[in-house]
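Hi everyone,

Forwarding the result from last night's run.
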Amino acid sequence: MKNHVHNIIYWLNLILGPLLSLIVIGWAVWFLDWQQVWRELIGANYGWVLITTCSILVTISLQTGRWQTLFIPRILPFRHLFPALVMGQVANILAPARAGDVLRAYIVGKTTGISKARALGTIALEKLWDMLMLFLFTAGLSFYITLPDLILTPVNILMSIIFVGLSLLGVILWQRQRTMQLVTYISTWLGKRFSDRLPIFAENVFDGFTGLHTPQRIAITCLWSVLIWLTMGTTNYMLFWAFNLYLAPRIAFLLLVALRIGVAVPSLPGKIGVFQGICVFVLALFDVPYDIAFSYSLILHLITFLPPILLSAIFGFQLNLQIQEMRSL
């Protein structure tokens, strides 16, 4: 029965996500004035497009700095973490089931020698921080904007996930020895293969949660997270100017919240269709014409995904050379 339910969920994700993307693409093909879209793209201020592209790279650098903090007391080189993070992000864009998170852990383990399980622990902690930021920014926006149910409903679900996640982290951090005893006990019921590996894996994952051990580390990670989200929202805002959209900053942050929620939905690789649909929906709430909103979404999509993809190709080539060199020693 459990496998049957799992299969249903799997096929729903596999079919409905791409179907949603295709619906948006079909809408764009039939209902947009493509001559006007082209005029908007030609007439955009590409000076601001270049600035927002640089802002994307700043965001990735800030994300790397936060990730580096989560490994304390180990100090891992920025030059190893940055490529791993970029390549992981690209894998998440192009591949299903958060494969990029596993790839990140694998790459940083290969290049630094740190436990891959510990790296996964820091990535899980990073995701929890981003969910918390998503909730806090949404709560802040609610004082200035009447939020649509399409945003409020996922955020309410997210609040429950955050509560459960923080509760589990609390148990692990303050009752780590007992938690490990429970993991060891469970592993003995799973056979020899798991009884040897699961406790070690769990211990390394829990080591990745050391970023919450002291108030100072929590404050530093919180500061990194706030800076990351402010930079992402500012990126959206600056791109408004490229299309002569003189909208309030809060609309840029509402778009950020909507995109962070929406791109979690399974879709075509690269979030094609879903990304554009979210941008058009949010900007239309503030009387931005569909053609302009769609043009904006195309440029935002391009500068959000293309730089990491290009960097990932370069880093992938370099990493392959490094691995080949290590094997030849």
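The two ends are 51 Å apart (CA to CA).

Cheers,
N.
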